[in-house]
Every structure is written in C-alpha cells, then in structure tokens.
Amino acid sequence: MMAPAVMLLLGWMLVPLIMTLYFSFKKYLPLRGGDLGWVGFDNYVRFVSSSSFWPSVSTTLIIVGGVLAITLILGTLLALLLDQPMWGQGMVRILVIAPFFVMPTVSALVWKNMFMDANYGLLSYLWEFFGAEPVQWMSQASLISIITIVSWQWLPFATLILLTAIQSLDHEQLEASEMDGATTLKRFWYIILPHLSRAITVVLLIQTIFLLSIFAEIFVTTAGAFGSKTLTYLIFQRVLESQNVGLGSAGGVYAIILANIVAIFLMRIVGQNLDK
User: Fold this and answer.
1) pLDDT (mean) for 223-242
2) Each residue of 174-209: pLDDT tens digit?
3) How big, in percent rounded to 5, are the helix, strand and coil portions of the chain?
4) Cα within 13 Å of Cα(177), Cβ side
5) What's the distance, CA 155 to chain centroid?
6) What is the helix (H) or strand (E) element at residue 47, kind and residue range?
C-alpha cells in the first residue's frame, strides 16, 4: 500500500536529479543560442576551477558551523530555562518558538532594516548610546550578520527538540545526585548532557542538511557580496544571472556531493550515539 507514495516520492526526487545530471554535460544557454551540444566534463572542470568555488564552499561551511554552534549552545540554555517552573510558561514557550514560523525572506528583511541598518537600525542607536560608531553590518560584518539572522530563525527548532529531551529525563536521577552533594554544573555535565546526546545529533543532522542550501537570507541582505557568497548562491548566479544552465547544473551536482559527504559524516555520529 506504500508503493504509490514511494513511487511519487522517487519521481519527485529522481526527475530533477536526472535532469540536473543531463544538463551538466551540455552547454545550454537559454537566451544565447539554446542547446549547443555535449561538452562532457567541461562544465565540472570550469565550475571547480572558478575563483569563486572554494571561497563559496568555505563560506558555506563557516555559516553552517557558526549557526550550529550558536543554536546548540543557546538552545540548550533556553531548554534548561524553559524546563523550570515559571509564571506564564506556556506564553514564553510560544514566544521562543515563534521565529521558526517566520519566512526566511521576511526575517532577513526585518533584521536588515530594523536592527542592522547603519542609519535607522536599533543596533545603530544602541551603538550611538554608548558612544561608538554604527557598524555597516552588511558590508563590514556580512558573515556575522547572516549567521545571526539564520541562528535567530533556527534557534527555536533546536530549543524545542532539546526541551523535549530534557523533559523525558528521569528527575529521580537529578534528585539523587543533588542529595549526594553534586553541584549544578556536575549534574549538567554528567547527567543532563549525556541524556541530550541523541537530541543534539538529531539537531545537527537536520539543521546541517537545510543550512547547506541557505539562499534567501543572503539574497535579500548582501546579494552574495562582501565575502558572503555560498555555494548555493554561486549556482544561482551561474544559472539565472549568467544564463548558463549547464554550468549551474554541474555546480548543483557538486552541492549534492558536499551535502552527502556531510550527511554521511553526521549519520555516523548519530548511529554511534543511538547504539549507546
């Protein structure tokens, strides 16, 4: 009975993949001659030998690593805080989770215009209040800005997963350790953190897969300038701005390879934690 759904899913995935592989071996310029024939691996060689390829890969990995570090650390702290009894706990949880439901384009525009604008942004007023010069965030600190924007959007997801894991912890262990004289830090390090290992690996895996294809936040903020061009944005430039479908398709294959390498690496971590 699952066969129709499986076939639909395979078609949904395989058709674009096959078309990408097909066009990656052709010189296809829609507005400059159309299909100009087979070129073999020339598109792959041109894409990987481009001066923008390795910087875009490193930028992608820096953004992914920065967002993962921020969301995991702050997500753990927020999850521990939300697990404590407090007045209006349900409303606080809703407010913490709310950013995850905001569209990436909307959140990027809000951060760009309301917080990081050098003339009218809230951060510029804060800087001036302390006597400092406002920062041109999108040009002087483009990667920090993008990491901040993306982290703000993905922090609720990490918090929700980690909070669920904390609430499944047997509190009798914490009470027993407290009676034995264990400090708060030791209880976190030896009891809570090992219990969160599976949740952390799940957050790592899911977020990494989505973060490797980050695009909207860069498109509406820096447009790939000031060292913020990721591999996905480079592919966009080759396909839509340069109108070179073959070269962009080769870049898409490289992106798939990179995503699979990272996914396999993380799956090994997940598998090791699940076996414990």
Assistant:
1) 85
2) 777 777 777 778 888 888 888 888 888 888 888 988
3) 75, 5, 20
4) 16
5) 10
6) helix 42-48
